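SUBJECT: protein chain
CONTENTS: sequence, structure tokens:
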Amino acid sequence: MMQWLLNGINDAGLILVELFAGFGLFWLGQLAYKKLFRRINLNVELFFKDNPAVAIALVGYYLGIAIAIGGVLGHGAISAPEKILNLIGYGLMAIVLMLIGAQVGDRFILRRCDTAREIVEERNLGAAFVEAGTHIANGLVLNAALAGDSGGWLVGLACWLIGLAVLILVTAVYPRVTTYDVFGEIEHRNNPAAGVALAGLLIGTGNIIRVSFSADFVSWIPSFAQYGFTLLFCLGSLVLIRWLTDLILVPGVKISDEIVHQEVPNVGAGLIEAFAYIAASLLISWAVLY
């Protein structure tokens, strides 16, 4: 009984230390965001200018870090100090890769927009939703890339780079599927519905990537062949389920028309499309993992 009590106290103490370390990483993350990425005064933007676009983008960034750190906590460790060192070391790596992923998102996903100007000066909610979706998707990719002990950091880095490339490819193909100018809607019309829908696609795709890289690494060719096959299968399933959404959830209505061909874009329609992508990715992940 006494040994059980001591073990419980030790576990509770370790959890508290991990929580404090996690909040320390959040603090470093937001410091890096405002000093290195956006170069803005968050207090002024959030609490004096009441800029909702900055808040949306920032919350997406925070959530992306939280998801990425979840992969770090999956590392096995022999002792409590080793667990803490793993959390701090990999957590700092996650913050650096989150910032790099954010820059990639600005340059290659929202490449037609000056994202900083759209969010900070124009208060463009559509651009803010897409940036938040990019951060969350990056966190999901990092969750898989940093998780587990097999393969080491080189395999994790390769998975992360592949994941970013898939996100860029999906967002390049997406406007052709929707048959409307997604990025033009976001930049010129400040269309929040289009931004929400694209953010949902990014998050759903990020979750698919996380699932595809979840299997333990064995060796380069067999493992990445398995990852690639799973990724293609899951992305194909995501497209199929999205197509079924129009038929089942909103029969007789085209979501794209509601998002674009309205005097006031239908944000509800954008949310339904975003839900379809995210819910589909969850269903696929549960089917693949369990």
In short: The first helix runs from residue 2 to 37. Residues 2-6 have pLDDT under 50 and may be disordered.
